[in-house]
Amino acid sequence: MAVNKNKRPSKRKGNKKKIVDPFTKKEWYDVKAPSTFTNRDVGKTLVTRTTGTKIAADALKGRVYECALADLNNDENAFRKFKLICEDVQGKYCYTNFHGMDMTRDKLCSLVRKWQTLIEAHVDVKTTDGYLLRVFCMGFTKKLPKQIKKTSYAQSSQVRAIRRKMMDTMTKQVAGDDLKALVHKLIPDSIGKDIEKECLDIYTLHDVHVRKVKVLKKPKFDLGRLMDLHGEMGGATDEMGEIVATSNEFVEPQVQESV
């Protein structure tokens, strides 16, 4: 006879772990976009509630949210996507800043066609407020009016000249402004239109776009500048994350019961 055959496991009391719904420990925060955009309510984000040394605000800072420009500006220009990074948390609001821009893949694929030359360029530029950005640009050669020839290819010397013009225009447009002014230029893509005008004497271009913007380096975090970007007054925060008045702000004195 086999030893310990048909031995059933002993039932121990109190060994069963209590199942707790993880969402009971979570709380919702509103994500706010800068005042540059029309619709400032990006959405909501979830985070574990503050317990002990683990603070909810620390978990939220650094989160990146990708939003379509169509949602941020309530228009039909849906192929441009903006990345917003959470830099500060006050109360139940996450205040974000610009973190990058990109184009959707379907738009990029629709631009690339046969019988034309694709010209791309990128440049590293520093804004006046200390942000180091890498800006990518793309453009395509265009058929001239009444052109009989099927193709419209640019020569390698023309491609080099156009790329040089692209880099010079992007450097001039970005280096002379701060980040807020740059975002104002990226929304209507005015940089792409300027490049198209600059390259007219070399070769006629069309579909010239700033394809992507990456943030490589940032200056030291400044709460006042972030609040100015959101069109609100900056200030210090208490333990709960609420804005409290600083020494240079007016505080109404409390009514005293007796003198």
Outline of this structure?
This protein has seven helices and ten strands. With 259 residues, it is of the alpha+beta class. Helix 4 crosses helix 6.
What does this molecule look like?
This protein has helices at residues 56-60, 69-73, 105-111, 156-175, 179-186, 190-198, 223-229; strands at residues 26-32, 41-48, 64-68, 80-90, 93-103, 118-126, 132-141, 205-217, 236-237, 243-244. It is of the alpha+beta class and 259 residues long. Helix 4 packs across helix 6. The strands form 2 sheets. Strands 1, 2, 3, 4, 5, 6, 7 and 8 form an 8-stranded mixed beta sheet that branches.
Can you give the mean pLDDT?
Answer: 86
Number of helices: 7
The 3D shape can be described as extended
The Cα radius of gyration reads 27 Å
What sequence of helices (H) and strands (E) makes up the elements? Answer: EEHEHEEHEEHHHEHEE
Major beta sheet summary: 8 strands, mixed
Structural class: alpha+beta
Blueprint (SSEs and pairs):
Layout: E1 26-32, E2 41-48, H1 56-60, E3 64-68, H2 69-73, E4 80-90, E5 93-103, H3 105-111, E6 118-126, E7 132-141, H4 156-175, H5 179-186, H6 190-198, E8 205-217, H7 223-229, E9 236-237, E10 243-244
Parallel strand pairs: 1-5
Antiparallel strand pairs: 1-2, 3-4, 4-5, 5-8, 6-7, 7-8, 9-10
Helix pairs in contact: 4-6
